Amino acid sequence: MLILLGAFIVLASTLGGFMLAGGQPLVLLHVSEFVVILGVGAGVLVIASPGHVLKEILHKVKECITGKSAGEKEFTDLLKLLYEVFMVGRRNGLIALEEHIMDPKKSSIFQRYPSVINHHERLEFICNGLKPVIDGKIKPDQLEDLMTAELEAKSVEAEHPVHILQLVGDSLPGIGIVAAVLGIINTMASISEGPEKVGEHVAAALTGTLLGIFVAYGFVNPVANRVKFNNAADEQFLKCIMQAVAGFAKGLAPLTAVEVARRSLDSNVQPHAAELEVALKALAHAK
Questions:
Q1: 286 pLDDT exceeds 70?
Q2: CA-only gyration radius of the chain, Å
């Protein structure tokens, strides 16, 4: 919800400073300028985006406003899940993982970790990583290359909404100038109506320029940057999975494979080593 707090600060600071200088907020309310700038901005968004990217932009913006990126708890749950899966493979052989990986929704292990099982991309990445090893289709030392290729493709795809939002943000100041020019045209057409009417039209035209710059640098570009941060957090989650799965496939003990993955995480989401080890040993003793 920090994004809403930031939006409030932007609006309050702008309008507050304007009012302190003696301005009246209603002077800025010119519906025609909002229609031109926001309408053209939306049109640019639609023109520049393929249908699937447009849907992803809406999803990513909604996620910025209402959701949150994975934190320490989510990563702890992920590492515990991977440890349980690896322990089954180590004790009963890789073939024992087939029932969990082929149909994870029905798996007694996966069902204990809703932050993974309810997230399609994370669940799919784990299963796609382990399936070739279970099937024996590739050698363990080839798995990391396979998962890296999949991760890079997902990373490129996730950046499409960022590029489109940045394009719209960069376009809005120019769109504001277009709105201002339209306002000046109206001003010239009404010059015979007297100074008061001309002043109103000029104010409306200047508001168009202001609105274009304000929306671009106050909202659209910051949202694009937030989407980029969220993408990085999602990518880190998948990298953590890759480190653990690839390590286990190469023969690392379950505890070691999970520890390698834990150390790959940023400090702000990294579970404490001692606490995680206690949790994992408790899982092992519960079996």
A1: no
A2: 26
Residue 202 is assigned to a structural domain of this protein:
yes
Determine, yes or no, domain membership for 11. no
Report the C-alpha gap between 238 and 151 in whole angstroms: 7
Give the tens place of pLDDT for each residue, 114-156.
989 998 999 999 999 999 888 877 887 888 899 999 999 999 9
Q: Is residue 155 part of a domain?
A: yes
In this prediction, residue 77 carries a pLDDT of: 93
Split into its structural domains, the chain has a count of 1
CA dist 261 → 78, 110, 132, 163, 224 (Å): 10, 19, 20, 30, 29
Euclidean distance between CA atoms 209 and 125, whole angstroms? 46
Q: Do the domain assignments include residue 194?
A: yes
pLDDT digits over 62-91, tens only? 888 887 777 889 999 999 999 999 999 888
Do 169 and 62 form a contact (C-beta atoms < 8 A)? no
Distance CA 108, CA 99 (A): 10
List C-alpha distances in Å: 117 to 60, 78, 204, 273. 20, 10, 52, 24
Higher pLDDT, 184 or 48: 48
Per the CB < 8 A criterion, the answer to whether 68 and 109 are in contact is: no
End-to-end CA distance of the chain: 40
